[in-house]
């Protein structure tokens, strides 16, 4: 078997095994050394390939696909700094538990550390941010080595999804020549079997469930009229919302639902969902009125900083954190009991074990009353010039059923936390809240749009500037996405922080205005552009954008200082309304 046949069969067996293990999408950035992988993936009939020129954009694009589909996505790049450009997205995927299969091409061993061009140290390049690293063997054509290639592919797909999902890294050294021969007979079959109808390593992986005695212990500890709080942080399980709200109904508890918990949207029971806790928990005296006996949190830490204050001030309350698998996401430092079990099964088991619960209705009523007062103020009033809160209000009114809202960090996610109220619409809310960076947001949103499901991306001007080249994929693949760009000409969130008091250095170091006419960039990438001036005008433009095929960008221009005052006025009115009600 000559070099080309060896290279072709080795790479074909690896790629074919990925598809048999469930991979359907690959994101490729052009390069020479990755030719064997790029061409073989593109030639395979079961793979949809996406070509994204810039590697940083490509990695976030892949993450958007993986978040939307809940399936691993493969990434391919050439050797050298191309692989380093994947790093920001890999860090985000690590912390937000997104399955990515990173395949980097490399120089063969004899060309490493000798001054060869485009050769950097790629062994364990991503450190502990990947679940698994493996340096692939140089291609060989023996049945044993073709079986090796299939085994590593199957293991990669399993590892990306096993336990807490995440990224992994396989490094492929290739010698020249690099072009495979796709005319070879039985190219996609392993010579060991002459056929390959399923994965070489099928996996049957069950869910974790607490033992009956542990469920009974929890019910006994938390039972009969205690003042508990259920907190739902970011998570994506579509069955969770119904299960947790049913548990709350039976136990008579408030549900503090982060917008990324998927609990605020959908057809499940929502009478006990508290959406506006961030607004009223900002006040210390209100927090003191709501001292809980226990807190049960499902999923990651919520976005709300006010909730963080609430938890820290109640460190003597019993606290529980429910995770599907092992992990430690408890930044408060409070004494916390960890429950490692499937959240849906846990809710069902707790319900089954607590039929005779007595409920303190007054406790739930207080939360609901405060939530009602907060919602009244948050949803009232219309300004002559649209505010950032009104942007989210208007968006929530018209966003289509069965669509995705992808949210940027900084002010965007915080305004969604404040102004996204419960709705029967089936809307999934996604964000990059692992490392909470502003990079890669356009690419992530555009990646989510590859499934054909309507996507609205809400982000600020700095996030937009940071990833404008992500618009190329929307143009190239004619993807349908509406981008709602809130332009306050800088880092609006810093205006809420103590740094804003430093008038000498604030604008240069924190405000960072970019003074860009984004319409020109949008037109360059073939997008439709519109500028919204009022909340009603925004709704009209959004509705029109959802009828348009391709890229639509609606810009809203706001003033950072006015935005701070508007938000603070809302919070003050909420505090005043709740405290007066208490008197």
From TrEMBL:
Residues 442-556 form the Thiamine pyrophosphate enzyme TPP-binding domain. Residues 14-124 form the Thiamine pyrophosphate enzyme N-terminal TPP-binding domain. Pathway: Quinol/quinone metabolism; menaquinone biosynthesis; Quinol/quinone metabolism; 1,4-dihydroxy-2-naphthoate biosynthesis; 1,4-dihydroxy-2-naphthoate from chorismate: step 2/7. Residues 225-407 form the Menaquinone biosynthesis protein MenD middle domain. Binds 1 thiamine pyrophosphate per subunit. Its EC number is 2.2.1.9. It catalyses: isochorismate + 2-oxoglutarate + H(+) = 5-enolpyruvoyl-6-hydroxy-2-succinyl-cyclohex-3-ene-1-carboxylate + CO2. InterPro entries: DHS-like_NAD/FAD-binding_dom, MenaQ_synth_MenD, MenD_middle, THDP-binding, Thiamin_PyroP_enz_TPP-bd_dom, TPP_enzyme_TPP-bd. Its cofactor is thiamine diphosphate; Mg(2+); Mn(2+). GO terms for molecular function: 2-succinyl-5-enolpyruvyl-6-hydroxy-3-cyclohexene-1-carboxylic-acid synthase activity. It comes from the Bacteria. Keywords: Magnesium, Manganese, Menaquinone biosynthesis, Metal-binding, Thiamine pyrophosphate, Transferase. Catalyzes the thiamine diphosphate-dependent decarboxylation of 2-oxoglutarate and the subsequent addition of the resulting succinic semialdehyde-thiamine pyrophosphate anion to isochorismate to yield 2-succinyl-5-enolpyruvyl-6-hydroxy-3-cyclohexene-1-carboxylate (SEPHCHC). Homodimer. Belongs to the TPP enzyme family. MenD subfamily. This is 2-succinyl-5-enolpyruvyl-6-hydroxy-3-cyclohexene-1-carboxylate synthase. The lineage of its organism: Bacteria, Bacillati, Bacillota, Bacilli, Bacillales.
């Amino acid at each position: 078997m000559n070099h080309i046949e060896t290279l072709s069969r080795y790479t074909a067996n690896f790629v074919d095994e990925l598809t048999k293990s469930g991979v359907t999408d690959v994101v490729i950035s052009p390069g020479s050394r990755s030719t064997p992988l790029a061409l073989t993936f593109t030639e395979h009939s079961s793979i949809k390939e996406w070509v994204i020129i810039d590697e940083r954009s490509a990695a976030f694009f892949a993450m958007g696909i993986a978040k939307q589909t809940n399936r691993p996505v493969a990434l391919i790049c050439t050797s050298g700094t191309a692989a380093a450009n994947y790093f920001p997205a890999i860090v985000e995927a690590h912390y937000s538990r997104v399955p990515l299969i990173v395949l980097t091409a490399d120089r063969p061993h004899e060309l490493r550390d000798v001054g060869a061009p485009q050769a950097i140290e790629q062994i364990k390049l991503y450190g502990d941010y990947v679940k698994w690293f493996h340096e692939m063997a140089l291609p060989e054509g023996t049945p044993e080595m073709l079986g090796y290639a299939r085994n590593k592919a199957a293991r990669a797909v399993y590892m990306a999804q096993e336990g807490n999902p995440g990224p992994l890294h396989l490094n492929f050294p290739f010698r020249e020549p690099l072009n495979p021969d796709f005319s070879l007979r039985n190219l996609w079959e392993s010579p060991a079997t002459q056929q390959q109808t399923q994965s070489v390593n099928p996996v049957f992986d069950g869910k974790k469930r607490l033992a009956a005695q542990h469920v009974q212990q929890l019910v006994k500890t938390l039972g009969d009229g205690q003042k508990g709080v259920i907190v739902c942080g970011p998570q994506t399980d579509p069955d969770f919302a119904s299960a947790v709200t049913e548990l709350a109904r039976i136990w008579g508890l408030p549900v503090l639902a982060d917008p990324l918990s998927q609990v605020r949207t959908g057809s499940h029971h929502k009478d006990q969902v508290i959406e506006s806790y961030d607004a009223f928990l900002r006040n210390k005296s209100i927090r003191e009125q709501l001292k809980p006996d226990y807190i049960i949190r499902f999923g990651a830490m919520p976005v709300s900083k006010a909730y963080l204050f609430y938890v820290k001030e109640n460190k003597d309350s019993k606290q529980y954190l429910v995770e599907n698998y092992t992990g430690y996401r408890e930044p408060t430092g409070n004494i916390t009991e960890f429950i490692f079990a499937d959240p849906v099964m846990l809710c069902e088991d707790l319900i089954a074990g607590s039929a005779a619960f007595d409920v303190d209705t007054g406790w739930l009523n207080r939360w609901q009353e405060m939530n009602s007062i907060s919602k009244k103020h948050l949803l009232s009033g219309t300004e002559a010039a649209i505010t950032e809160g009104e942007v989210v209000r208007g968006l929530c009114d018209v966003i289509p059923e069965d669509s995705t809202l992808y949210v940027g960090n900084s002010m965007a996610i915080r305004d969604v936390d404040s102004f996204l109220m419960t709705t029967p619409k089936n809307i999934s809310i996604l964000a990059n809240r692992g490392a909470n960076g502003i990079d890669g947001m356009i690419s992530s949103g555009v990646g989510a749009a590859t499934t054909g499901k309507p996507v609205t991306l809400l982000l600020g001007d700095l996030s937009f500037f940071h990833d404008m080249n992500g618009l190329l994929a929307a143009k190239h693949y004619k993807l349908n996405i509406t981008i709602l760009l809130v332009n306050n000409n800088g880092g609006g969130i810093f205006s809420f922080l103590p740094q804003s008091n430093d008038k000498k250095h604030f604008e240069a170091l924190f405000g960072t205005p970019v003074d860009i006419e984004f319409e020109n960039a949008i037109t360059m990438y073939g997008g439709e552009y519109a500028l919204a001036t009022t909340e009603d005008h925004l709704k009209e433009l959004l509705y029109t954008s959802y009828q348009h095929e391709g890229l639509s960008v609606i810009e809203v221009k706001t003033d950072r200082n006015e935005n701070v005052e508007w938000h603070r006025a809302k919070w003050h009115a909420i505090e005043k309304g709740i405290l007066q009600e208490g008197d």
